[in-house]
Amino acid sequence: xxxxxxxxxxxxxxxxxxxxxxxxxxxxxxxxxxxxxxxxxxxxxxxxxxxxxxxxxxxxxxxxxxxxxxxxxxxxxxxxxxxxxxxxxxxxxxxxxxxxxxxxxxxxxxxxxxxxxxxxxxxxxxxxxxxxxxxxxxxxxxxxxxxxxxxxxxxxxxxxxxxxxxxxxxxxxxxxxxxxxxxxxxxxxxxxxxxxxxxxxxxxxxxxxxxxxxxxxxxxxxxxxxxxxxxxxxxxxxxxxxxxxxxxxxxxxxxxxxxxxxxxxxxxxxxxxxxxxxxxxxxxxxxxxxxxxxxxxxxxxx
Length: 302
Ligand SMILES: NC(=O)c1ccc[n+]([C@@H]2O[C@H](COP(=O)([O-])OP(=O)(O)OC[C@H]3O[C@@H](n4cnc5c(N)ncnc54)[C@H](OP(=O)(O)O)[C@@H]3O)[C@@H](O)[C@H]2O)c1
What we know:
Blueprint: E1 2-6, H1 12-21, E2 25-29, H2 37-41, E3 45-46, E4 58-61, H3 66-74, H4 79-82, E5 88-91, H5 97-109, E6 113-116, E7 119-120, H6 123-127, E8 131-137, H7 139-144, H8 146-152, E9 153-158, H9 163-193, H10 198-206, H11 213-224, H12 234-251, H13 256-270, H14 284-288, H15 295-301
Parallel strand pairs: 1-2, 1-4, 2-3, 4-5, 5-6, 8-9
Antiparallel strand pairs: 6-8, 7-8
Helix pairs in contact: 5-9, 9-11, 9-12, 10-11, 12-13
The structure holds NADP nicotinamide-adenine-dinucleotide phosphate.
């Protein structure tokens, strides 16, 4: 397909490379132009303006947050102005449920398609084409994007015709992951304070009852107290829990654990943790127990 990809951050760079590897004709765009060069060297066209990435069958956005997607879609010479009749905007960032609703309405008014397709998987999975993609939108539009999803992911889950559903599923998943990180942080603080080796403890957990990748990945980071380089940066983690709470408020679903997690992220960011991985909230329980450096300070001391 002839496709644009806007947003060459930790995730978007690997996704664009996999689209190229699969033989798609890819035009890339990024706010900071330095990030275009590696993709151009792999065969991508560089777009000087956002609308120059919108001349094909579809344009993918993989941007940080709602604000970034709004700027790129609704701004002058943005996606809404640049996309042809019948072409599809595929929004793969983790954004709010409300924004997905606004995008669906705006693209429909402009006779453009809209598919929401956020992903599970960190930058290593994006680079390896192993993302799990959660897609929602009109069935013909989702089907038209399948070859793009196959290039970037190992499996696509369709969750309905309303794009908002994909965002809600993604946000609920990140809420669950953050809950695991917090629980691991508390459990490891407990055993560490008693002098038990956290690596041995994690080996026991992950080879018996807690074998899921999420325990291995994040348990390893907490046991090693290694939160840099960030694969998924702490401000994006805060954003996701905030958006999960916003969706919960709209639907009137109390989520006390999500409120607690949001405070954990605020504490991490207040202590200077912006550049750390979101799993650094798993260090806060240890700090509360008088163990080790705060996550931000550990970095400064390193
Ligand atoms: N990292 C993960 O493990 C992971 C996993 C699943 C989902 N996600 C989601 O995927 C999305 C991208 O994450 P990431 O880790 O790739 O983030 P990232 O490395 O911080 O990249 C963010 C991208 O957004 C662009 N951007 C930010 N604000 C902008 C604005 N106002 N206007 C135009 N462009 C803007 C950045 O451009 P510049 O290069 O100019 O800064 C960059 O291309 C996020 O929604 C995140 O929640 C991430």
